[in-house]
Design goal:
It is a single chain. With 204 residues, this protein is α/β, with parallel strands linked by helices. It folds into 2 domains: 141 residues, Rossmann fold (3-Layer(aba) Sandwich); 34 residues, no CATH class. Helix content is 50%, strand content 12%. It has a 4-stranded parallel beta sheet, with helices on both faces. Strands 5-6 form a two-stranded antiparallel ribbon. It is globular and about 55 Å long. The two termini are 22 Å apart. The mean pLDDT is 79. The protein binds zinc ion. Zinc ion binds next to loops.
């Protein structure tokens, strides 16, 4: 039985991390751990961490790294991560990367998946292609089907194939979001790459 161990998926928003993660989940039967999903699940289930996060978000503030880290730590204690797991969108900051580094070292002795080498995958897509992918996206507000005017157009332009609802988009805000996300992601990726390189050296 293949035990892939911990896998990090890194990349700008819209680069396809979620899609790649789902393929790896199917291939290896290991769970995808997305911090966005974790946050929503903790809030929905009313866990102590979720209640704290909800209060912070209701004040319009960002959930701090320490809280996100704790949610990841709790999730990684679940038995389904024994053979490995895919971290999707985490670590997102240097503080999270340092925390993960420390946790992998601390748990290498007693959690099988943690002692396997860490694999970091950085997904990179050409900026213009990424822009097309994001600005071309159209959502059906009724059945939530996602289209793309370039790569997956509906049969009738602007309307859902399923029930015919008018599709929605927000290309300008997305374009702005992408620009700032790319500006932030590039230096962060460089920093993360050097950290990850040192993790891999120390684990040889
Ligand atoms: Zn629809």
């Amino acid at each position: 039985m293949i035990a892939p161990g911990p896998i990090l998926l890194l990349g700008a928003p819209g680069v396809g991390k979620g899609t790649q993660a789902k393929e790896l989940v199917q291939l290896w039967g290991i769970p995808q751990v997305s911090t966005g999903d974790l946050l929503r699940a903790n809030v929905a289930q009313g866990t102590p961490l979720g209640k704290t996060a909800k209060g912070i978000m209701q004040r319009g503030e960002l959930v701090p790294d320490s809280l996100v880290n704790e949610m990841v730590a709790v999730r990684l204690q679940q038995p389904d991560t024994a053979k490995g797991y895919i971290l999707d969108g985490f670590p997102r900051t240097l503080a999270q990367a340092h925390w993960l580094d420390g946790r992998l070292d601390a748990t290498a002795c007693c959690e099988p998946a943690q002692s396997l080498p860490l694999v970091a995958v950085s997904i990179q897509v050409d900026y213009n292609q990424l822009l097309r992918r994001i600005t071309g996206r159209r959502n059906c507000p009724v059945c939530q089907t996602i289209y793309n005017v370039y790569s997956k157009p509906p049969q009738r332009a602007g309307f859902c194939d399923v029930e015919g609802a008018a599709l929605t988009s927000e290309p300008m805000t997305r374009r702005r979001h992408l620009r700032s996300a790319c500006a932030h992601t590039l230096p962060r990726l460089r920093q993360l790459s050097s950290i990850i390189a040192s993790w891999e050296d120390s684990r040889k």
